[in-house]
Amino acid sequence: MPELTRAILGRLRKFIGERRRATRLRVSLPIAVSLGDARTMKGSRQPQSMEGDTHDISTSGLALRVPAIRIGEHYLAGENRSLNIKLELPVGPVEIKAAPVRYERLDEDETEIGYVIGVRITEMSATDRARYEEYIASLIKKQE
Q1: What is the pLDDT of residues 55-70, one digit of tens each?
Q2: Residue 82 pLDDT
Q3: What does residue 111 show for φ and ψ, rounded to 5 degrees?
Q4: What is 3-143's CATH superfamily?
Q5: How far is residue 51's CA from residue 77's CA, in Å, rounded to a whole number?
Q6: Please, what is the end-to-end C-alpha distance for the chain in angstroms?
Q7: Which helix (H) or strand (E) holds 135?
Q8: Segment (H or E) for 31
Q9: Where are the domains of the chain?
Q10: pLDDT, tens digit (0-9, with 9 covering 90-100), for 115-128
């Protein structure tokens, strides 16, 4: 989708309202993201992961802020792409497998240059899921 179209849709979302089912919580947490299919990076001299942070989180997905949309020559938001995300919670790291569902370039008036990638969580260990949801519950409780 062309960048202009993405920008317009992103702005419309602000005016029309969100249609997401899970409550999104704005929080900035460190992340490391890599491609889910390690075979695509085999033998590559390019970095195999990228650091960034979260824009927001929910029980079903995250919005990731990253400096680039590609690792090497592979798009992070490519069709049928799987991402491995290491999320640093205050209680320790959790590992998440996720599928990108959208992306948009950050506005030029933002202090950082990069992209926001919206991802849907597809897999987590039971232990990591419990810690992740406990953290989200604590954020919701603080907002009340």
Answers
A1: 999 999 999 999 999 9
A2: 94
A3: -75, -25
A4: predicted glycosyltransferase like domains (2.40.10.220)
A5: 15
A6: 39
A7: helix 126-143
A8: strand 30-35
A9: 3-143
A10: 999 999 999 999 99
